Amino acid sequence: MHKKILLVLLGWLQIMHIKAQNPVIRHIFTADPAPLVYHNTVYLYAGRDTATVDAKTYEMPSWHVFSSRNMVDWKDHGPVLKPTDFSWASRAANAAHCIERNGKFYWYISVMHKNTEVSKGGVAIGVAVSDNPTGPFKDAIGKALITNEMTTDMKHSWDDLDPAAFIDDDGQAYLFWGNGSCKWARLKENMIELDGPVHTFKPDHFTEAPWVYKRNDLYYLLYAANFPESIDYATATDIKGPWKYRGRVQDPVTNSTTTHPGVIDFKGKSYFFYHDGSMPTGSSYRRSIKVDYLRYNSDGTIRKIVETAK
Ligand code: FUB
Questions:
Q1: Distance between CA 56 and CA 249 in Å, rounded?
Q2: Sequence-separated (6 or more) residues with CB below 8 Å from residue 170
Q3: pLDDT averaged over the chain?
Q4: Is the CB of 47 under 6 A from ligand 1?
Q5: In a mutational test of the pocket of ligand 1, which residue from 50, 206, 208, 229 has the highest number of ligand atoms less than 8 Å from its CB?
């Protein structure tokens, strides 16, 4: 009997501990979480927000990596990658996603292209590579992997934002990205070249920030929807689609017009990462990464996640 009460208490304390930690990164402002589980450790890749308190635009000079073995204590490995590490890029550490393949870590990033003739003078996607999840990373190809010119329906200069990679059970890798519409393409096994055309589709209410994964043979596509952004999702039995809109994962967040999803399974639980502007002096341009549990209904749909206040 006592043992039972103790176990319930321990479970409750575990939940409270994680809740008490939100936002999980507090010593700097961070956005666009991209978690990765590797060797019993969670690596969290994120952009750093350094805008001043009254700023009305993003100031993002670098990407950091954080790691944790328990989802409570996080180590900051520093600004391991910067837009200026790409000779063809100028600034703006927009959303990025790092994925492991055969012991190498491929970090897909979206940045301002230096050449104003390229990507309508806007955002392009590049890829950095490392033998270690915390770096050092270097530009893998010395040029942009994706630019606006590669798609037939480019709408604006920041179309090519927010890359998210996914490797299917059969080893085929994909890159999803986009703003305004969602794009995807196959990646070659080397992870640094496209293997086919760029496809475009428009999930219901899609704004940006796709995140793709597979669970029980069902593909999930979470994304930032509407504006101010909520996180909505769609599912598909084939990664090529059609994607069926499934509704909302999380309502718009505290004090930030944007949010950004990242999902992992770690030690038997599913976690949902996002960002808001809830820290003191926080804002849409001074964001903080938070995490909450993600739970499924028996039919595979996602239970709506209420943002944790503390
Ligand atoms: O952090 C800059 C941009 O804001 C990201 O690329 C978007 O996903 C939004 O979070």
A1: 27
A2: none
A3: 92
A4: yes
A5: 208
